[in-house]
Amino acid sequence: MSKSIFISNILPGKARELIPRDVTVDYNSSQTGLSKAELIARLRGKDGLICHIISTIDEEVLAAAPTVKVVANVAVGYNNIDVAAARRRGVVVTNTPDVLTETTADFAWTLLMAAARRVVEADHFARSGQWQKWEWDLLWGADVHGKTLGVVGFGRIGRAVARRALGFNMRVLYQDALRADAAVERELRATRMDLEPLLAEADFVSLHTPLLPETRHLMNERTLRIMKKSAVLVNAARGPVVDEAALVRALKEGWIAAAGLDVFEEEPKVHPGLLPLKNVVLAPHIASASFDTRLAMATLAVRNCLAVLDGKPPLTPVP
Ligand code: GLV
């Protein structure tokens, strides 16, 4: 019997072309997430699923799709999938690490720099006709070079963010449950610290932790108040790592200076309190969105799915 794959949302043709002709593909080219009922209906009889973070693959979906052997997520984060439930059912879950590390780190830095140097405000100022004369004190921002960067979550992306700080001659602090090898700490000139002292010392705090029960609202009123009043917070990890209501107050009341956000608690909704604030730079979850990287992610997800359907080990199973 030929194998069949359901691709639940848009995926580049170049990645889909890797699927051999004898595999049946049910492709939903839409960018809109399917309802649970539609997802379950389209998964009926399928051997594999390739999906994005907009698909919630929970116990109910897995139970209703007993033929599925692999769920290949097109993202490094996989909080949209109940991995424990998948494991219990013998379903392999894969993600797309490595291929997006550098692109995501580039974007975390984009947010950091944009927030520090007020690029979005400057753009509005220049294009709106407000720039009428030279002004000595126009749009002053914070220096980045020579300052202290705090990286929360020192996995692949956190380390890539830290590596970029070397070029800015920054001091790097990191917080992670695991200590990095001494060689990595030396190479990145990074010092491990507990979260609270890191927050108290860092001029820039960049979040790179997965969303787990213990990281939900890691940044909340208490922890935001520990940060320096001059500090900038960057979140290119997952929205719920930050309590958005508390962040709105922090930015409005000056507990911290600014923030750069790529992710939000209830995407695609942005907390209405953030919208009027000038000291926050907002992006619609695009940290991995470069031409090359998005194609590499899609390709890796297809390869993962095909490997499992061929009875081979997946390239990048979730840990
Ligand atoms: C994007 O958010 C990803 O997890 O890859």
In terms of topology, how is this protein built?
Layout: E1 4-7, H1 13-16, E2 24-27, H2 36-43, E3 48-51, H3 59-64, E4 70-73, H4 83-88, E5 92-94, H5 101-117, H6 119-127, E6 148-152, H7 156-166, E7 171-175, H8 182-188, E8 190-192, H9 195-201, E9 204-207, H10 221-226, E10 232-235, H11 244-253, E11 258-261, E12 280-282, H12 291-309
Parallel strand pairs: 1-2, 1-3, 3-4, 4-5, 6-7, 6-9, 7-8, 9-10, 10-11, 11-12
Helix pairs in contact: 5-7
Bound molecules: glyoxylic acid (GLV).
Note down, in words, how this protein is organized.
Helix content is 34%, strand content 15%. It has 319 residues and is an alpha/beta fold. It has two domains: 115 residues, Rossmann fold, CATH 3.40.50.720; 182 residues, 3-Layer(aba) Sandwich (Rossmann fold). The strands form two sheets. A seven-stranded parallel β-sheet has the order 8-7-6-9-10-11-12, sandwiched between helices. The protein has a five-stranded parallel β-sheet with strand order 2-1-3-4-5. Helix 5 crosses helix 7. 41% of the residues are buried. Bound molecules: glyoxylic acid. The site of glyoxylic acid has 6 residues, from loops.
Briefly summarize what is shown.
By secondary structure, the chain is an alpha/beta fold.
List keywords for this structure.
319 residues, globular, binds glyoxylic acid, five-stranded parallel β-sheet, alpha/beta, single chain, 34% helix, 2 domains, seven-stranded parallel β-sheet, Rossmann fold, 12 strands
